[in-house]
Write a structure and sequence with these properties.
Blueprint (H helix, E strand, L loop, with lengths): L1 E6 L12 H8 L4 E6 L12 E3 L7 E3 L1 H14 L4 E11 L2 H7 L4 E6 L7 H6 L3 E4 L9 H12 L32 E2 L2 E2 L9 H19 L1 H5 L1
Parallel strand pairs: 1-2, 1-6, 5-6, 5-7
Antiparallel strand pairs: 3-4, 8-9
Bound molecules: 6-chloroguanine.
Catalytic activity: guanosine(37) in tRNA + S-adenosyl-L-methionine = N(1)-methylguanosine(37) in tRNA + S-adenosyl-L-homocysteine + H(+)
Function: Specifically methylates guanosine-37 in various tRNAs.
EC number: 2.1.1.228
Length: 225
Amino acid sequence: MRIDIITVVPDLLKSPFEASILKRAIEKNLVEIHLHNLRDYTTSSYKQIDDYQYGGGAGMVMMIEPIDKCISKLKSKRSYDEIIYLTPDGNVLNQSMANSLSLKGNLIMLCGHYKGVDQRVRDLFVTKEISIGDYVLSGGELAAAVLCDSIIRLIPGVLGNETSALTDAFQDNLLSPPIYTRPSNYKGHMIPDVLLSGHQKKIDNWRDDKALQRTKDRRPDLLEE
Ligand code: 6GU
């Protein structure tokens, strides 16, 4: 997989890919991340990428021309499966969207800033609009990092067996059951007996019950989907 990220703040997107699982995925050549600074695609000598909005109103709007230049250059070299615009008014990211994006080859992610991009960018270039939740971030960069993480960890070979994505919360629209590790008795606080029973069927049933109960208590909306 190859992900090209278009941003005005490339620095914000460096560290997420320089540690832990995402770093290892890049080192194993399972994914390539390419950052593109939108200011490198301006024609004006001021490197202007935003302007006032037609019709008046507070806040700047990202101009179409630099974005067109950047996307056109990328598209001239390879084809892309999706051009994703990160925006708070997009479809809210969930596990099934991450699952389907993890099967794609080449993706472009466009990070919004200020008031967002000129509507014509969305109409002409963008194929998917994604938000990471109902709150506002200063820009789409951190949302792009979240989206990348949710996708890349699902690529076969990225996670080892000890961290397999198959048993993740949400993978079957359920939250995860409680988990424990050593010691079994911590200052008198015991782990549930069933986990020491050695009876795998009972353990699996206990986990299923707890996962369902937790989902009913905390996220009943997931059970309606
Ligand atoms: Cl994708 N962008 C911004 N600026 N804020 C957000 C978001 C995206 N998703 C949730 N909040």
